[in-house]
Amino acid sequence: MSEMTLRRAQVSDHGTIVECVREWWGDSRTPDQARELSMLLPRLFLQFFAGTSLVLEDGDGVKAFLVGFHAADNDHEAYIHFVGVAPELRGQGVGRRLYTAFFERAAEAGRREVHAITSPLNTGSVAFHRAMGFMLEEGDREVNGLPVHGDYDGPGQHRVCFRRQIAVHPRSD
């Protein structure tokens, strides 16, 4: 495996990232489900949040990405919206590398707290977020033993909500 480079995302990455989602999740979803999942990443995320989003690539192309942003309504929160890692690289610390880089950049920007959500059925994501130091937020119901926010993303779309404190490291520039 060649060396991977972490860089800031660009608007021009949008098509590639959408294709990655469709391909990387194609093994666990139907083509229609994978396409629907890719719709969670409209171009606007990279138009307006490329500076807080990350791409990990090697000579063969994109191997992982993280789309995240800093809250517009306050100066202390950040949010990780969507993360993808090529199936052959899962379990090798690639997701941790992306999250750690996001935390560092958010802390440099004065952010003190990072949020994320996932489906209560996505046990791998729940375990990953817990391993990354995220705390489960209290919900209004329980699914599979997890506190969830009912109908968070619409009727029947319950979500596990996470929060993680990070230490602020103001930029020295």
UniProtKB/TrEMBL annotation:
Pfam families to which the protein is assigned, alphabetical: Acetyltransf_1 (PF00583)
Q: Which domain of life is it from?
A: Bacteria
InterPro entries named among the record's database cross-references: AcTrfase_GNAT_prd (IPR017255), Acyl_CoA_acyltransferase (IPR016181), Bact_Acetyltransf (IPR050832), GNAT_dom (IPR000182)
Locate the N-acetyltransferase domain: which residues? 4-155
Q: From the record, what ranges are coiled-coil?
A: none
Q: Does the keyword ATP-binding apply?
A: no
Could you confirm whether the keyword Protein biosynthesis appears in this record? no
| Gene3D superfamilies listed in its UniProt record | 3.40.630.30
What does the UniProt keyword field contain?
A: Acyltransferase, Transferase
Q: What is this protein called?
A: GNAT family N-acetyltransferase
